[in-house]
User: What shape does this take?
Amino acid sequence: MKLHGYSLNKVAELTGINAGNLSMVLNGRARAMTIGHLDALAEVFGNLLPA
Assistant: This one.
């Protein structure tokens, strides 16, 4: 997120994942993410990683 200048709310908007759920995952308070959440994150960040 930092690398691309995305806020938590921007990532939530792009992925369709609730910002509260994202916050819990990023802060280590969530038990697990769903495959759907992982797919959504991969879709957003998969093509944005530096070479």
